[in-house]
């Protein structure tokens, strides 16, 4: 069994399996930070009391409901419904379909979409950085700086989208040449840790996108609101450009979703950030399917 690292278990222990959808007494809901006037800015990110943690072109989720807490004062912020295994399966299928469209778009055009994502993040940098500080526990300047990291890699990726080339090599055959061309690998799975809930995803996402790959993100359960907020920003850009939302999918969840990603041969490349202990387990699961890679 793949266990969460100890650092994550502090917050994960505060998750709750509810008997019915979103069933909580009004008294509890009123204590959520998102309902307090000083935290009204959270709604600028599209967050609510109850948030869906699965995105594949549409929002949903049939898994357990978790409450995320501010580590500074141990007060509940808001709730997120995680992905079930069925949600994961549906998301994988939609992401694979979206890849057929995304991979056919010329790299410079893909770079333009990434540029727009960077601009959208710039517009929300202060409020998103504040969420990083609130939910993860960093000081505000570092929370904002982490969003800036994502913006910076978007800028870098835009330039890179016009520089993806390969050498032309001499051939032994008269009148022929060997041309090296890079092709998209497919679906990139991205598993990120709680301590860098924005930047690490950004490093992976921006580069993967300009290369013609689609992404499936599973962030840490303790920073689920950040994952949802970032995905909402990206989803708006994709929607405005009439592109499939599943190009940048999200499945909030725990070890069951992470294990599924590691074992799934439809995930062509997996990026993992986390503890050494869990990383070794992920590596073994991925190695077991090397011969099945397509």
UniProtKB/TrEMBL annotation:
Domain Aldehyde dehydrogenase as annotated: residue spans: 63-289
Gene Ontology molecular-function annotations = aldehyde dehydrogenase (NAD+) activity
Q: Which InterPro entries match?
A: Ald_DH/histidinol_DH, Ald_DH_N, Aldehyde_DH_dom, ALDH7A1-like
The protein's matches in SUPFAM superfamilies, at most eight in alphabetical order, are given as: ALDH-like
Which Pfam families is this protein grouped with? Answer: Aldedh
For this UniProt record, the keywords arranged alphabetically read as follows: NAD, Oxidoreductase
Q: Which family does it belong to?
A: Belongs to the aldehyde dehydrogenase family.
Q: Which PANTHER family match?
A: ALPHA-AMINOADIPIC SEMIALDEHYDE DEHYDROGENASE
This protein is called: ALDH7A1 isoform 16
* Species of the source: Pongo abelii
């Amino acid at each position: 069994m793949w266990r969460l690292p100890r650092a994550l278990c502090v917050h994960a222990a505060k998750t709750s399996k509810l008997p019915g959808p979103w069933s909580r007494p009004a008294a509890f809901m009123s204590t959520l930070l998102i309902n307090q006037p000083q935290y009204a800015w959270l709604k600028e990110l599209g967050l609510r009391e109850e948030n869906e943690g699965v995105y594949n072109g549409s929002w949903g989720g049939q898994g357990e409901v978790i409450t995320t807490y501010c580590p500074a004062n141990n007060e509940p912020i808001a709730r997120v419904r995680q992905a079930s295994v069925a949600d994961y399966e549906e998301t994988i299928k939609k992401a694979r379909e979206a890849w057929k469209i995304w991979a056919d778009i010329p790299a410079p055009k893909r770079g333009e979409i990434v540029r727009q994502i960077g601009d959208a993040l710039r517009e929300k940098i202060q409020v998103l950085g504040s969420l990083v500080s609130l939910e993860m526990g960093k000081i505000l300047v570092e929370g904002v700086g982490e969003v800036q990291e994502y913006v910076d890699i978007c800028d870098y990726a835009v330039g890179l989208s016009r520089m993806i080339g390969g050498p032309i090599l001499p051939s032994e055959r008269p009148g022929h040449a060997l041309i090296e061309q890079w092709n998209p690998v497919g679906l990139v799975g991205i598993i990120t840790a709680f301590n860098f809930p924005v930047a690490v995803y950004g490093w992976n996402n921006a580069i993967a996108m300009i290369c013609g790959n689609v992404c499936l993100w599973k962030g840490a359960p303790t920073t689920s609101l950040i994952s949802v907020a970032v995905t909402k920003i990206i989803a708006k850009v994709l929607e405005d450009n009439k592109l499939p939302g599943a190009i940048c999918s999200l499945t909030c969840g725990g070890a069951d979703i992470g294990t599924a990603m590691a074992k799934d041969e439809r995930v062509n490349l997996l990026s993992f950030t986390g503890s050494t202990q869990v990383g070794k387990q992920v590596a073994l699961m991925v190695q077991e399917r090397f011969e099945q890679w397509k």
